[in-house]
Write a structure and sequence with these properties.
The protein has two domains: about 130 residues, ornithine cyclodeaminase, domain 1 (2-Layer Sandwich), CATH 3.30.1780.10; about 170 residues, NAD(P)-binding Rossmann-like Domain (Rossmann fold, 3-Layer(aba) Sandwich). Helices cover about 35% and strands about 25% of the residues. It contains eleven helices and 16 strands. The strands form two sheets. Strands 1, 2, 3, 4, 5, 6, 7 and 16 form an eight-stranded mixed β-sheet that branches. Strands 10-9-8-11-12-15-13-14 form an eight-stranded parallel β-sheet. The longest helix is centred in the middle third of the chain and has 20 residues. The chain is globular and about 60 Å long. The mean pLDDT is about 95.
Length: about 325
C-alpha cells in the first residue's frame, strides 16, 4: 500500500484558518453529542529534560476516520522552533489501513487556535473590541490570526516576559492583520481586554482574577496537564467555566483543580463543554457583565477532523509524498 506523508509546508498550504474554525466547531458539537470516541491524553515525562511525550487516540464516529496523534512537547525549544513536534497517524475508515502521516506541530497550532476562536464566538460579548494576549510564542501568533476572524477587534494588547520580543511580536501582528497592536509592560494591562488568552508555558499563574473586568471572556490555552497553571483561583471562581471535553478537564485542568482544592469552587463549577453550548444544550454567556472562561486542553477529534480534510485535499491536488508501507 501507499502511505501519504504531509509535511509542515503541506499543512500550511492546505488548511486555512477559516476552514479550520468550521471543522473544529463541528468536531466539538459531535463530541458533545457523543458521536465520537476518544481517551484522555496520556503524558510521559521525559527524564533529563523539560519535555514530555503525549499520545491521543480517537475516532470521529461510525464509519468515519480514526487515528492517533503522538507529540513530543518541549516548552523551552530554541527560538523559531515549534514547542510541539510529532505526527498524526490517520487510518482509512473503510479498510483500517494507515492512510497518512501528517506533521503535527503546525496542525496542533492551527487547530488549537481554531478551537479558541470557535469558543470565543459563543462566549465573548458581541461588542468585544479589545484582545489581550499573554504570551508571545507560536500559539500567540496563531491565536491572533484566528480571533480576528470571529470578532472585529480594534486593538490588541500583548504581554510577554521578554519586552523586546513582545514589541517585535506586536509589530508583526499589526502588519499581518491591520489591527493596532501594542506591547504592554504588565500582564494586568493585557488582562484589561474584552477577550484575554493565556498562551504560555508558565508553571504558576500569569493571570489573576482581580484584574478581570465585568463582561470579559478568558481563554486558558497554555497548560495541557494538571501541573502547569496559568490563572489563579479567583479567575476560575469569578467565571462561568466551560471546557472542550469534560472527562479530560476533570483529569488534567490544572486551574480548576487548584480552585477546587482551595475550596473556592465546588465540583459543579464546571458547567460543561463548549460543544454543548454550540448545540444549545447549555447556556453560555447569559448577560453583558458575566465573566466567561474556556479551558482548552485539546481533543484528538480536533486533530482528526483537520487531518482528514488535509488528506482529502492532498489526494485531490496530488500534494505530499507517497511511500510504500
Amino acid at each position: 500500500m501507499k502511505l501519504l506523508i504531509l509535511s509542515r509546508e503541506d499543512v500550511a498550504s492546505l488548511l486555512d484558518m477559516q476552514t479550520a474554525i468550521k471543522l473544529v466547531d463541528n468536531a466539538m458539537r459531535s463530541l458533545s453529542l457523543r458521536e465520537t470516541s476518544q481517551i484522555v491524553r496520556r503524558i510521559l515525562p521525559l527524564p533529563g529534560s523539560d519535555g514530555a511525550l503525549g499520545d491521543m487516540p480517537g475516532s470521529l464516529g461510525t464509519g468515519k476516520p480514526f487515528g492517533l496523534k503522538c507529540v513530543a512537547a518541549f516548552p523551552f525549544s530554541k527560538r523559531g522552533q515549534s514547542s510541539h513536534r510529532g505526527a498524526v497517524l490517520l487510518f482509512d475508515p473503510s479498510s483500517g489501513e494507515p492512510a497518512a502521516i501528517i506533521e503535527a506541530g503546525l496542525l496542533t497550532a492551527i487547530r488549537t487556535a481554531a478551537a479558541t476562536a470557535s469558543a470565543t464566538s459563543y462566549l465573548a460579548r458581541s461588542d468585544a473590541r479589545v484582545l489581550g494576549l499573554i504570551g508571545t510564542g507560536e500559539q500567540a501568533h496563531w491565536h491572533a490570526r484566528a480571533l480576528v476572524l470571529v470578532r472585529p477587534f480594534q486593538r490588541i494588547l500583548v504581554w510577554g516576559r521578554d519586552r523586546a520580543k513582545a514589541a517585535l511580536f506586536a509589530e508583526a501582528v499589526q502588519d499581518a492583520h491591520g489591527v493596532p497592536c501594542k506591547a504592554v509592560d504588565k500582564a494586568a494591562e493585557a488582562a484589561s481586554a474584552d477577550v484575554i488568552c493565556t498562551l504560555t508555558s508558565a508553571s504558576e499563574p500569569v493571570l489573576r482574577g482581580e484584574w478581570l473586568y465585568a463582561g470579559a471572556h478568558v481563554n486558558l490555552v497554555g497548560s495541557s496537564s494538571v501541573t502547569p497553571c496559568e490563572a489563579d483561583e479567583l479567575c476560575v471562581a469569578r467565571s462561568r467555566y466551560f471546557v472542550d471535553w469534560e472527562e479530560s478537564a476533570r483529569a488534567q485542568a490544572s486551574e480548576f483543580h487548584r480552585a477546587l482544592n482551595a475550596n473556592v469552587i465546588s465540583d459543579t463549577h464546571m458547567l460543561g463543554e463548549i460543544g454543548a453550548v454550540a448545540v444549545g444544550r447549555i447556556a453560555g454567556r447569559r448577560d453583558h457583565r458575566e465573566i466567561t472562561l474556556y479551558k482548552s486542553l485539546g481533543v484528538i477529534v480536533q486533530d482528526l477532523v483537520c487531518a482528514w480534510h488535509l488528506y482529502e485535499r492532498a489526494v485531490a491536488q496530488r500534494i505530499g509524498q507517497r511511500a510504500d508501507f
